[in-house]
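Our collaborator T.R. sent over the components below with a one-line note: 'Predict the complex.' Nothing else. No constraints on interfaces, no templates requested, no preferences about which chain binds where. So this is a plain run: every listed entity goes in together, and whatever single assembly comes back becomes the starting point for the next discussion.
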Amino acid sequence: MSENEDIIKVEGLTKIFNHSLTAVDHINFSVKHGEIFGFLGPNGAGKTTTIKMLITVLKPTEGKATILGGDIAKQSMDVRGAIGVVPQEYTADEDLTGYENILLCADLYGIPRSVSKKRAMELLELVELTGFKDKRVQTYSGGMRRRLELASGLINRPKVLFLDEPTLGLDVQTRAATWNYVKMLKKEFGMTLFLTTHYLEEADALCDRIAIIDHGKIVVIGTPTSLKDSLGGDIITLSVQKDEDITGLISKIEHVKEVRKENGSYLIKSANGELAAPLIIEALRKSGLVVTKLSLTKPTLNEVYLQYTGRSMRDAEESRENVMQQRMVMRRARQ
Amino acid sequence: MSDQEEVSKSRFHGLWALTNRELKKWYQQPFVLAMGIIQPILWLALLGKAMNIGNIVTGIPGIDPKTVMLHTFGTTNYFSFMAMSMVAFTVVFTTAFTGMSVVWDKRLGFMNKVLSTPVSRSSIILSKVLSASVRAIFQAGIVALVAFALGLTLGTNFGWYSIFGVFAIVFLVSVGLSSLFTALTLRTTRMEMPQAIFQLVTLPLMFASSAYFPINQMPSWLQIIASWNPISYTIDAVRRLMVFSNGFGQLTLDFAFVASFAVIVTVICVVLSWRYLNK
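Returned assembly:
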């Protein structure tokens, strides 16, 4: 398989629930071999619906998608056999042990026990669950469950691994550990990864390319760097003592690209904020103005996200708490 | 690719794995297993022994209790008559919660995982049906043993083949009933559904059958309902094999009816599973 071949190819993929609710609206994208492709978006944007269609659990209303050349609608059995899935929720059987769960998963892929027993042990070793392999999943912590899900998703040696919010609701340490596993697994097996996440910093650090999806449509696709650059560089926020409009004055300064007055302070875009800031202060002092406040922000994916979805991650943060709460209820229901 | 060769294309591989998962949950729970054994003992001991119709008709002048009992129930021992219907009812109670397990799998996310693997959708459903049937056969066997211990009078029809016959009909009706209960809960994720269905379905199954009284003593409208009730045929077959002495009569019809019921409902259930498990 060549480096630049499209592993996942999506054309006009659409899902309409009950003839009225458009969850995914004619999206197009492709994922290349060996890439880590991230899907970002607020809750209800269509991330999970897209992933469910790609893993052939949900039938698309319109459009088509191929994975490794197999059509998700027409060759769903072949596609299922070639991909690995780590769903958003915990899916392991609580009454079985970790080892039994992985073996069961292997059976569902039709892998004979002679092969799967060895592979299960290797995977358990890889996610550091060997010591707990004969304990029931009931007794596992959240992080251990996640790792078990990862191991189960890899039992068929997938060429493409789908991860739906793999770190949702985990504490910071476990999140970091989970990503380390993901990175290691990708290196070990040379897989292509498709993931959705809420954590922008993680997407930034991990993904080769990112698609931001909102209201079922992809609003932008690109590498994290190109997305951040598309915002026009650094942002300087500035306040001065006098209440007169100095937009014109600032815009003439070197390195400044754009100036906007907002709530009594100035938002200045600059390709190079470190160089622009001293020049601005200098120029204003020469005009007899005193700078009271100045801050310099390097654009992060958070700004990109805000720019394209009109929402900051804070809103998403709240809905994440809801998901966490739901999960707690589910946990209790399982007991 | 070497991976491809390792994959067994057999449909039974996944089916067996899923069935085994269900059974493991059952036999690894000694408490649940014990309850399943104690429950039929209570049923038979309390209900079976309380309704002593043989005693009720004894001592009435001009009435020979033996003739009355034989004429009405086909055996002089009402307990034997009733105990055999309990064999069939154990199947209803055991299979009724197959639907519950489908709903749990959906709620706990396990179903999502299974659906994303290449295992066939019908295997998912058939594993529920098969595991419920194995449990039902086991339970029915226990009921028969308990009944024997509590004073079951075997008829002259009884022979070693009867045991196989009883297991065969119990298997057929289990497959039919668990498919029925699964099909009815295939679309829902609500826990209340299987319970509501269980309550709705068991009562007519139980009373519109020959479980407690012979069908020919019922009003004609009820006879019509009872004559379409697979439980009636199951009970009839079990009685003919175990406690009756007047020949096998319509045993072939019993088997044919229950087998057709099992096949038809299972096919419907599998077709529905293709439709509703792929949203």
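Summary for T.R.: The mean pLDDT of chain A is 85.
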